[in-house]
Design goal:
The protein is mostly helical. Helix content is 64%, strand content 5%. The protein contains 20 helices and 5 strands. A 5-stranded mixed sheet has the order 2-1-3-5-4. Helix 20 (431-438) links the parallel strand 1 (424-426) and strand 2 (445-446). Helix 6 crosses helix 8, helix 9 packs antiparallel against helix 10 (200-213) and helix 15 runs antiparallel to helix 16 (325-349). The longest helix has 41 residues, at 108-148. The radius of gyration is 27 Å and the shape is globular.
């Protein structure tokens, strides 16, 4: 037990100290601050995974990395020009990090992957702690399994999206609040609000709660500063750079993939969680109500309200199924608890097991096994999807490597951009990847060619999107000039001189 050793022995140990390795003070800090230890462990594992696995960022993360490169080059190196146009919605949290990583050149994509991957691991640890808090170790493990089985979980973890951070924010804001660390929980919600604007009502309500729960001046100033900082971070950077203070809203409005209705958004939750997990989460919430566990009831109600908020947002504006992730995370906790509670209920219903602990345990374990076996038809299907996403993530590393080799063979930016009007076309999903490699604005990379210039054409797969079509009738010479792996590079020009430029010119001219 901590503190049970004799005082004399402690004094000897303190006077001599360890012969090698970390100092006793550092060890004590980690022992006294388990959350710090968890963060460090997740960070180290994330670094190892980034070094060991060939996975690379997907389209949106590469856009944030490209923007970070633009911002860094505004201060160091050859200026690229800063613009948040031609990409996804601006998100403050990733852009803050990628702007710092932009000073590290080619390491920036890996550094951002470390941040996202750390979020994934923190989410798993956090949801385990929540499940264990309310239902023991088994409930924690089952909650982790349920979260891993959510739709696109492997893609989110492997490709550097912001969703892992959102999941981590959800579970750790809850966990820290239950630990009594209200100010830290509030900061975690602030991080969430910098990733998803739907956290704004949550952080506002928590700020009101914090105002009365901890009425000292320092805490109130802290709450107000972070609350005001949320809209400032979302609007001022794109407003100052491009004059569009609502860039995040306008970019999302032009996106695709929205179910288009509140019903469609809510219906998508079935596919996100699988039918058994969704059913078990409902059962878990009902049992929590029967048990009158007001903490879990509050979490369940919050998840329902979040889902309704996203549904209404989808109906009147724009929404995607992944916006339901915080509610999904809570549902995974409920599902894990449901399995454990059902097993306990069955064990208590067997008269002979009431006085025999081993028999009760065996019955509970058997019940868990039966419930899990009943989910196999859906679990196996989701497992196959996870394997496919793993294979696609690995292939994405190969596609990036071959693309960058093709760029280098072409001579890079100087050769590809022959005049100020030049742009390059490529499969639309990897436009941001090429923009980062070439160190140009995203608007210089387009998903189609309507004039003269260079075209990078890769296979039509989900990781790359459609190959760029050549839509101009004013060009009649298409020459393959380089290749690498499954990538081909074409020079698009005219055979004869005209008002649109001299023969063979690769400058867009007046087309």
């Amino acid at each position: 037990m901590i503190g049970s050793e004799p005082v004399a022995e402690r004094a000897v140990a303190d006077s001599t100290g360890p012969i090698e390795g970390p100092s006793a003070r550092a060890v004590n800090v980690l022992r006294d601050r388990p959350l710090t230890s968890i963060l460090i462990a997740c960070l180290v594992l994330a670094i190892v995974s980034v070094l060991a696995l060939p996975w690379v960022p997907s389209s949106d993360p590469y856009a944030w990395i490209s923007w970070g490169q633009e911002i860094a080059h505004h201060f160091v190196g050859t200026p690229i020009g800063v613009s948040f146009e031609g990409g996804p919605s601006f998100k403050p949290f990733p852009v803050v990090f990628t702007s710092i990583f932009g000073f590290f050149g080619g390491a920036a994509p890996s550094m951002w992957l470390v941040v996202s991957r750390t979020g994934s691991l923190l989410a798993l640890v956090g949801i385990f702690r929540l499940g264990r808090r309310f239902g023991g170790t088994a409930a924690g493990i089952l909650a982790v399994v349920a979260l891993c089985m959510t739709q696109d979980a492997v893609f989110y973890m492997a490709r550097g999206t912001s969703e892992p951070v959102v999941a981590a924010v959800t579970v750790w804001a809850i966990e820290l609040h239950l630990l009594g660390s209200r100010r830290l929980a509030y900061f975690v919600l602030f991080v969430g609000a910098l990733n998803r604007p739907e956290f704004s009502p949550i952080i506002f309500l928590y700020a009101v709660y914090l105002w009365f729960a901890e009425p000292d001046t320092r805490t109130r100033v802290y709450a107000l500063v972070l609350l005001v900082a949320v809209p400032v971070f979302w609007t001022f950077p794109p407003g100052i750079v491009s004059g569009d203070f609502l860039q995040a809203k306008n970019a999302a409005e032009g996106g695709q993939g929205s179910p288009g209705s509140a019903y469609g958004e809510l219906k998508s939750s079935i596919g996100l969680l699988t039918t058994p997990v969704l059913a078990l989460s409902i059962i878990g919430f009902v049992i929590a109500c029967v048990k009158r566990n007001w903490t879990l009831i509050s979490l369940g109600v919050a998840a329902i309200l979040w889902s309704l908020m996203v549904a209404v947002m989808t109906q009147v504006f724009y929404g995607l199924p992944r916006y339901l992730l915080p509610a999904e995370t809570v549902a995974c906790v409920m599902a894990g608890l449901a399995v454990v509670w059902l097993a306990e209920l069955v064990a208590t219903r067997v008269p002979s097991a009431r006085s025999h602990t081993r028999q009760a345990t065996a019955i509970a374990v058997a019940t868990v096994a039966v419930v899990l076996a009943a989910t196999l038809p859906w679990t196996i299907t989701r497992g196959k999807m996870m394997v496919l996403q793993t294979q696609q993530a690995t292939a994405s590393g190969t596609y990036q490597h071959d693309l960058f080799v093709a760029v280098d063979r072409m001579g890079g930016k100087r050769k590809l951009f022959v005049c100020k009007l030049s742009y390059v076309s490529i499969n639309h999903t990897v436009a941001s990847m090429l923009a980062w490699k070439l160190r140009v604005k995203l608007v210089k990379i387009r998903p189609l060619m309507v004039s003269q210039g260079y075209v990078f054409s890769g296979p039509h797969v989900s990781d790359l999107g459609l190959p760029p079509p050549i839509l101009s009738a004013k060009v009649d010479r298409i020459t393959r000039v380089a290749s690498s792996g499954q990538w081909s590079v074409y020079a698009v020009s005219r055979r004869v001189s005209s008002q649109y430029g001299p023969a063979g010119s690769l400058c867009p001219g007046h087309v």
